[in-house]
Structure formats: structure tokens, C-alpha cells
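Entry 14: structure prediction run for ATP-dependent DNA helicase. Input pasted below.
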Amino acid sequence: MRVRNRPAVLRTRYYTINSDKEAYYYSLIVCHVPFRNESELLFENETTEDCFIRRQRDLRPLQGNVSAEQFNHAELIIQQAVAHATALNAARETDVGNAPMLCVGEQIINDDDNFCEDMEERSVMSDECFLGSIRGLNIQQKDLFQKVTTAIENDLHSQESQLLLFITGGAGSGKSFLLKLIVEHIKRCYAPTVDILLKPNFVEVGSLTGVAARQIFGKTLHSIFMLPIEKKNTMTYKKITGQRLENERRKWRYINWLIIDEISMVSYENLRIIHLRLQEYKNNDKLFGGVNILVFGDIFQLPPVKGHWCFVQPPWFSAEVNLWRGGQFVAAVFFL
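Run finished. Output C-alpha cells:
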């Protein structure tokens, strides 16, 4: 017997009107209609659907031409709109000018253990946790958060502007903390723009290794961009076509942000393939397909296993645009 560190979550079977009609209506009745004896809920020979229609006024005032599923959908839309407003208002309140200044040598470290780690990959952070995390940002983190918010607002207003940033700092400076907070912020800001029934994704998060990707609830760059395997120090890029390309373009239809962690391990050769893949996915000839790019990492940590540093363009690519300098990744943000 051991002490539970997380609160227990009651799990019940989920029914739909198509999979099990009787069980679906009965679950609604049992959950939302007060009763002392379960056998008294239904009349004799009465179906659960008839009982639900008869007692729907006990659940909530419903219009005759609107189903409970439509109400649930409407509630989700309202929740998204509230989360959207919460995110933008919280970002506007992060006024760097009013933030307390740091003394020389002082360091603010955001501990990942306090960052709601119990959320799953695509789950939504509570407003309390989200707002508390924003209030815990230091001056430089707030400045970066504002830049991301400005880019989001420009995108939502159809203003063509691309944000390409390199965020660096030593161990314990809060890079992973800020990365996860930005991902949540992006989801909240874009959620009301697309019907939730489409299950859209607005940001892709990746890292070169599986361990690093798991830490940020992301995927490996090889799985996202189909990076080729290096053979004899060469890396051949092949375009994707047909149904695979169609599937990727459908997947990336609403994705306007890419976040890469541990950028020091990504070679320039891999960065170039990511650039070309994004042009394919978005059907856009702009740098990185016009997608906003945030790269996190410490250049003084692990170098690429093979290839050149991400900021060093090989001589044989000199005729192409320099992805690092052309993308203004040199405008790095250093955390205290």
C-alpha cells in the first residue's frame, strides 16, 4: 500500500448515440437527473430515449430542434473563446517595464517540477496553472513571450510576418518551462479559429532524439520531416509525392508554428531538409514555408553527430540562402 501523489480520476465508459443508443441516453439520465432509486427513473416499457425526452427539462432548458451533442459542441466553442481571451489578456499584462529588476548575479530558475507535468500531450492546461506560469516569468522570458504574442496577433489578422528566433540559456534557466508555456499559449490563441470537431493542430514540437522529444511532449524530427538516414557522410534529399504529400499538407493546414528543442544537435544539413520539407508541406516558397520557427537549446552542449553546426553553412550550399543568418536566428535571447 502506498500513498497516492495524484488525485484519482474516475473513469467511465464513453458511449455515443451511434455506438449504443440506449446506453448513451441512459448515461445522460443517470448523470444529470437526481434520483433516490435507480429503478424509478424509467417507466415500464419506456426506452431510455423516450425517458430522456420526457425528462430533458430536468437536465437543462433545451430547444426542441437542438440536440445535447450540439449543446456540448457550443460549450466547447465558448470554452475555447474564454481560453483565447485569457491567453491574450495575460500576455498584454506582462509589461516588462513594470517587472522587478534583477541584481547582478541574481538568477531566476523555473523548476519544471512545478509546471503541471501531469498533463498529457494534447491536454489543456487549467487557467490557474497557465496564469500562474505567466506570472512566474522573469524579465527576459516576458519579453520573448510578448514577441510570440505579437506574431500570433499579426497572423490572426492576416498580416504577413514570420517570427524566427533562437532561444538559448544554460541548464536551469527555464528553457523547457518557457517552451511548454508557449505551446499552451499558441493552442489557446488559435483554438477559436477552427471548428473543434476537425481536431486541428496549431503547433508542432520536435527534437532530434526520442528522449528529448518525450520531455517536451513532442515528436522526433525524423518522424515529422522524414529525415533521410546519413550514409557515408552524405544525406540525399528526396521530395515526397502523391498521397503522402497530400496527407502531410492536410495535417499542416492549420500549423503555423514549429518549435525545435536541443537545436545544438541538429546539423545544418538537417535544418536545410526541414526548410525544404516545410516548403512542401505548406506549398510555399518562403523561408521554412512561411512557418514561424522557435529553436531552443544551448550551443555549448552536444554538437551534431555528423554534419556541420546548424549556424555553419557548408561551402557546397553557398549558392543558397543561409538559413541561419537569413532567418535572423542570430538574434538570440539569453536568460540570466
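Notes: Confidence is low (pLDDT under 50) at residues 98-123. Will compare against the previous run tomorrow.
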